Amino acid sequence: MILSVSRRTDIPAFYSEWFCQRIREGFACVRNPMNIHQISKVRISPEVVDCIVFWTKNAGPMINKLDDLKEYDYYFQFTVNNYDKEVEPCVPELSVRLETFMRLSEQIGRERVIWRYDPILFSDKYTPEFHLKSFEKIAAVLGPYTEKCVFSFVDVYPTKNSCNLKKLNFRQPSFEELDHFAGELSRIGKSHGLVLATCAEAIDLAKYGIEHNSCIDKDLIQRITGAMLDVGGDGQREYCRCVKCDDIGSYDTCPHGCIYCYANFRPSTTSDRLGAYDVHSPLLCDHIKEADKVTERPVKSYKQGYKQLTLFD
Questions:
Q1: Residue 42: beta bridge partners?
Q2: How much is the pTM?
Q3: Which one, 6, 61, 271, 279, has the greatest CB density within 10 A?
């Protein structure tokens, strides 16, 4: 099993104590977002977890808890943008995030910290020129601390984030504009020794050396673990190349409040969920109720054998 922590909320930034408690107890529970009374109990012991993929905008609270993960393999998807508070109101200052990224990389290795510059949104204020300048500024700092940068363009969801994006005068760029922009990103990335890749994007940018990324990355996990994996695709979204994973996060629980977010789009619900946070509950920002049905999810390791080379060879 590959454990995603989490596409639905920022567990390293806000719920690292809860996650470590789940590690100690060896399981977590996840409520089905499509059937609220259906709960899966997911075993997360080292025997079945092949790798943990963390998603975060602030890994700071997690750094001093990494000893709790000594029996696990893992890597981080660490988002560092340069938006103002109108877009990312509760994200730490850029200087703080850069320092945290560097500390994490020094502790676990640059191969295990992927820089995400996403989502990219264009508006009157956040122009292509703004993004290229911001990207170069961040790349100059993070180049020695990561191997790869993954970027994507903001996805518009009519019922989730479109109203917020309209307030920023968000606009869809033309194909020609995206193509030129990507070429400039590639030029900057190469100058700082970075491999660039897109996340769930249809546009083919191979001519610039930009690949389609797998964020839940079978190849990287095989490098980290030294084992071959027998795991299929996940199919989260169109053009998504991730392999299958199990996510233990919950929607509407992220205090970052980013206006483009598709996973945190009901403010009234978010307030209630945050108030229900209990480090000892197996559910994140929730409790098991009398009407709930808890079923153990069948999970297993995908490891099929060991390779000759590992990440460190």
A1: 28
A2: 0.94
A3: 6
